[in-house]
Design goal:
alpha+beta, 2 domains, eight-stranded mixed β-sheet, five-stranded mixed β-sheet
Length: 193
């Protein structure tokens, strides 16, 4: 039979646990509210990026389904890569993945906004960062891919660490031909056992 001392300790333990959970919950709400409340301080268009042509590269490794990447790269006048966009598709899948390589120094809590011909933007969260680039990616459903095929331009909006929204617009005129056409190069790897 529990004594009054056991009951007091039980009540104190329950109160302590409840207070800990309440404090953690309040902290989580403050943190999520902070990210949502951070507003952009301004906007600017990056005009010095020069885009190459869309091209399709395919890879087949050891009898696995072929993986194709339809890509475009934008470079600064210095030759440094500014943006690379890949639409990645596997031969046996109906869905694709849109992946963007962007310079480091972006405010990672704001996802990349992608707009085709001024339509409603789609948001692509950052997946990971390397030493020289951060990658934002997500599934691109068949409807979005079709929109890219029929579109004229694709606009990317990122937010940098100074909370400035940076936009760049790239051409989609050649995308459909590259995407639907034969690959510029197919790389195969045979695995001998």
């Amino acid at each position: 039979m529990p004594t009054s001392t056991h009951c007091v300790w039980g009540v104190l333990a329950a109160a302590f646990i409840n207070a800990s959970f309440s404090e953690a919950s309040a902290r989580d709400e403050r943190l999520s509210g902070t990210n949502a409340a951070v507003a952009k301080r301004g906007e600017r268009e990056t005009k010095d990026i020069v885009y190459g042509d869309w091209q399709k590269l395919c890879f087949r490794a050891g009898g696995a389904p072929m993986l194709c990447r339809t890509s475009i790269t934008g470079k600064f006048p210095t030759g440094q890569t500014a943006v690379r966009i890949d639409l990645i598709e596997r031969e046996d899948s109906r869905t694709a993945r849109l992946q963007m390589f962007l310079p480091v120094g972006m405010y990672l809590q704001h996802p990349v906004k992608v707009t085709v011909d001024g339509a409603s933007p789609r948001q692509f969260p950052y997946s990971w960062c390397l030493t020289n680039a951060c990658i934002a990616a997500d599934v691109a459903d068949p409807t979005f891919v079709k929109t890219m095929e029929t579109g004229k331009s694709l606009t990317l909006e990122v937010v940098d660490s100074n909370l400035l929204a940076l936009t760049t617009t790239l051409p989609l005129a050649q995308f459909a031909a590259a995407h639907k056409g034969a690959p510029a190069k197919t790389m195969e790897q045979d695995i001998d056992e």
